Amino acid sequence: MKRKATAWEKRHMAKVARMGCIVCEMLGYPGMPAEVHHVRMEVGWGRDGHFNTIPLCMEHHRGNTGIHMMGRNRFAEMYGYGERELLAFVNARLGRKP
Fold first, then answer.
1. DSSP H or E run through 38
2. How far is residue 86's CA from residue 17's CA, in Å, rounded to a whole number?
3. What b-and-e string marks burial along 3-34, b requiring 16 or more CB atoms within 10 Å of the CB?
4. What confidence score (pLDDT) does residue 5 get?
5. What are the sequence ranges of the domains in the chain?
6. Which residues, listed in sequence order, are joined to residue 35 by a DSSP beta bridge?
7. Following CA atoms 85, 46, 78, 13 in sequence, which dihedral angle do they give, to the nearest 10 degrees?
8. Other C-beta atoms lying within 10 Å of the C-beta of residue 97
9. Quick one: CATH architecture of 7-94?
10. Per-residue model confidence as pLDDT tens digits over 61-84
């Protein structure tokens, strides 16, 4: 069973979502509404934590050209950035250390 997010984690995820889709921004379309994607830090698809999150629009998250439909490797090939690279960019913008 997945652990529920604490109030602190919920605030963090809301801040991440407010950033707008990170992929759309890199493609020249900043400010696209986003939902939170949990980055998988270890092998497999298990959630690592509520702080390892990036903002993705519905298409880049769950759509045909999204990470869940394409898989991590094809997603990274298509956009030039993998989950961890996008997470590092998001964390730097939020002033969080890796």
1. strand 35-38
2. 13
3. eebeeeeeebbeebbebbbbbbbeeeeeebeb
4. 86
5. 7-94
6. 56
7. -60
8. 5
9. 2-Layer Sandwich (3.30)
10. 999 999 999 999 999 999 999 999
Q: CA separation (Å) from 73 to 14, 64, 69?
A: 27, 14, 11
Q: What is the pLDDT of residue 83?
A: 92
Angle between helices 83-94 and 72-79 (to 10 degrees): 70
30 DSSP assignment: T
pLDDT at position 50, please?
85
Exposed, middle or buried by CB within 10 Å (0-12, 13-18, 19+), for 64?
exposed
Q: What is the pTM of this model?
A: 0.88
Residue 42: the pLDDT is 66
